[in-house]
């Protein structure tokens, strides 16, 4: 497992039970206080089909900046970051499911888990390097 | 002059020439550089920031230029080769000759999605997936699994009859021809085909599957078909638009080509459906 960052550690606190696998594949998500419906989903830490999904909510304000800022949530699968993007209509895509939209980061991450069929994500490389 | 043909009409020899040229570009490493370029744009094109290759008006001229460069690379291997187009509104089943072992090979096996027949099967040792979003280094497909049906001719027709090329806010939420063809709105044409093929085609590294080029050659043809059907319509936006490529702005990564330069495909190639092509053959 990668070195745990502060943000990851906060996420872990919110979902320790599921992180330990005690909830199995059942979804467990703790949604952080959401000031507006358009705000990204909150912290998620769950085990889905045997893979650990961690989502740290965006820390920036709004979603009008570029994609490199903290205005997007950080999504990890077994500690590896999944590149995600938000569409103008509020739906989501990832580099694993690029041509299909999802309603929220959790369903996006679960779709990536299904698509990965047990494979690990390649190291996060915004310019698309080889694994 | 290059003539792009419907893949369903290719002779066995033409199929072999095309797949051999692909494998040679793969061997030299040239192929993977195209995959890397595409993924770089996929990941940086955003609805609220700069966008060039996708979810923006230049989706069509960007991919036209991208395919021209790829076709030129193929022709350094074999001058006779051109990119065939896959009319997925006509050849719409997993039993199409496109997916036979003498062309692209078929769908992946259930266990891991691996394509196991045809020239791009992992076991050939000639088609390793090097630019990837996960650890799997073999070509994968899941034909018809992510979405059951390919777009129909009626759906294509409805999009071709949209008279306005693109509209503000010039992104994935726009109305108009470009976004209905790209597929973020409406019946969903281009995006749906990526999902129907599945495997790498559903990801940012979609050009790893050779069908990427044949899919985009057809999307490119639909742009030409739209122009023929809507002769008074043109590329938009014209000028002064932030974050997107106006008609006379240059496009990354080439920085020396504009959408205006790409409007007439006949400067570069014709399609086998066009009379000009027939007279030149
Ligand atoms: Cu595409």
From TrEMBL, chain A:
<dbReference type="Pfam" id="PF06236">
    <property type="entry name" value="MelC1"/>
</dbReference>
<keyword id="KW-0732">Signal</keyword>
<feature type="signal peptide">
    <location>
        <begin position="1"/>
        <end position="32"/>
    </location>
</feature>
<protein>
    <submittedName>
        <fullName>Tyrosinase cofactor</fullName>
    </submittedName>
</protein>
<comment type="similarity">
    <text>Belongs to the melC1 family.</text>
</comment>
<dbReference type="InterPro" id="IPR023199">
    <property type="entry name" value="GriE/MELC1_sf"/>
</dbReference>
<dbReference type="InterPro" id="IPR006311">
    <property type="entry name" value="TAT_signal"/>
</dbReference>
<keyword id="KW-0186">Copper</keyword>
<dbReference type="InterPro" id="IPR010928">
    <property type="entry name" value="MelC1"/>
</dbReference>
<feature type="region of interest" description="Disordered">
    <location>
        <begin position="55"/>
        <end position="74"/>
    </location>
</feature>
UniProtKB/TrEMBL annotation, chain B:
<dbReference type="InterPro" id="IPR050316">
    <property type="entry name" value="Tyrosinase/Hemocyanin"/>
</dbReference>
<keyword id="KW-0560">Oxidoreductase</keyword>
<keyword id="KW-0186">Copper</keyword>
<keyword id="KW-0479">Metal-binding</keyword>
<comment type="similarity">
    <text>Belongs to the tyrosinase family.</text>
</comment>
<dbReference type="Pfam" id="PF00264">
    <property type="entry name" value="Tyrosinase"/>
</dbReference>
<dbReference type="InterPro" id="IPR002227">
    <property type="entry name" value="Tyrosinase_Cu-bd"/>
</dbReference>
<dbReference type="InterPro" id="IPR008922">
    <property type="entry name" value="Di-copper_centre_dom_sf"/>
</dbReference>
<protein>
    <submittedName>
        <fullName>Tyrosinase family protein</fullName>
    </submittedName>
</protein>
<feature type="domain" description="Tyrosinase copper-binding">
    <location>
        <begin position="209"/>
        <end position="220"/>
    </location>
</feature>
<feature type="domain" description="Tyrosinase copper-binding">
    <location>
        <begin position="54"/>
        <end position="71"/>
    </location>
</feature>
